[in-house]
Amino acid sequence: MPRKYRFVWLDVFAKSPLEGNQLAVFPDARGLSDEEMQSIARETHLSETSFVFPEGEKVDRERGFRTRIFAVAGEMPFAGHPTLGTAAVLSEMNGCKEVALLLKVGRIPVTFSVRDGRRFGEMVQNEPVLGQTHEPRAVAKALGVSPDDLDASALIQTISTGLPFAIVPFRSLDVLSHAHPNWASMARYLADSDASYFYLVSRETVDSSALLHARMVFSGGEDPATGSAAGPAAAWAVLNRWAKPGRTEVIEQGLEVLRPSHIYVSSDLRDGRPTNVRVGGHVTPVIEGELSL
């Protein structure tokens, strides 16, 4: 007899269906092997697919739902939109406003409310870890842009709340939107740094109410929304006085790939260091189904 596994397909950081970043969530993945989860992630061919292993109401509530996140190329210790989307599915199933996930990077709590008439979640990410600063000319070469295309008013710096991103400020929206970064060139630079990815940002935005316009190119293409980078970007913004500590701001992303995303972020600043990083957004279910193995 075939084994059957229910899944929910969501658009995360999306104010409307068919926007934001896509995610498939398997809310009860008990019985799946590592090899099967990786094969399912290749089958969905989304940037990430998440698998939940419930262990009982009391344990799941106190410790957090044990969750594993797989990209097409392998397992991820942490990712932003899978954390938010998975927690949204579990919140709906269990009728609760707060859900915690137990991930490879630890326990991540997510709280849900209604904003603009739609389901909205906000996670508290791990405390930011500040990494190295980067030489602009070397970064510009890796990105295939001119050093003059970068904004010299802020440092290029690696920051991590689970995954290390080098935050790279561009001087204008036009330059950032028309850049064509090559992953192979970026990967060569990143291999000798403390960052796993670049997160490219500009203070010029399409939506005048947004704080930053952002792009994230990786081996699989361009990410419509990157919650694991938005948290470090929020910490970076308060460090560089691009944002006020404690104030909720919006990062717009995904416009270049026709998947507009709105990521709500905030970071406090205590004794000169960013802390209490929060990342939130809307979650929109679009498909429900059953996988047979």
Report on this structure.
This protein has helices spanning 34-44, 57-63, 80-94, 136-143, 173-177, 183-191, 227-239; strands at 4-12, 21-26, 49-53, 65-70, 75-76, 98-103, 106-115, 118-124, 129-133, 157-160, 164-170, 197-202, 212-215, 217-218, 221-222, 249-253, 261-270, 273-292. By secondary structure, it is α+β, with helices and mostly antiparallel strands. It has 2 domains: 4-125 and 282-292, Diaminopimelate Epimerase, Chain A, domain 1 (Roll), CATH 3.10.310.10; 129-280, Roll (Diaminopimelate Epimerase, Chain A, domain 1). The strands form 2 sheets. The protein has an 8-stranded mixed barrel, surrounded by 4 helices. It has a two-stranded antiparallel ribbon with strand order 14-15. The radius of gyration is 18 Å and the shape is globular.
How are the SSEs ordered, and which strands pair?
Blueprint: E1 4-12, E2 21-26, H1 34-44, E3 49-53, H2 57-63, E4 65-70, E5 75-76, H3 80-94, E6 98-103, E7 106-115, E8 118-124, E9 129-133, H4 136-143, E10 157-160, E11 164-170, H5 173-177, H6 183-191, E12 197-202, E13 212-215, E14 217-218, E15 221-222, H7 227-239, E16 249-253, E17 261-270, E18 273-292
Parallel strand pairs: 2-3, 4-6, 11-12, 13-16
Antiparallel strand pairs: 1-2, 1-18, 3-4, 4-5, 6-7, 7-8, 8-18, 9-10, 10-11, 12-13, 14-15, 16-17, 17-18
